[in-house]
User: Fold this.
Amino acid sequence: MGILDEAAQFIEHVADRIENSGWSLCPCGEDHGQARLDAEVPSVLRSDAEFAPKMRATADG
Ligand SMILES: [Zn+2]
Assistant:
């Protein structure tokens, strides 16, 4: 397992936590729009995770 595989797993783990465990980018307790951001972040993280294997393929090639 390469470092990019581990990174992809970590990203997926964090995205899952944000969606299912109530993790927030800003856990200060005040509502200043972070919920909207939190809702968008998992999909952004996952697109990064999908990118990692492609980066590895490029590095190997
Ligand atoms: Zn805050």
In short: The mean pLDDT is 87.
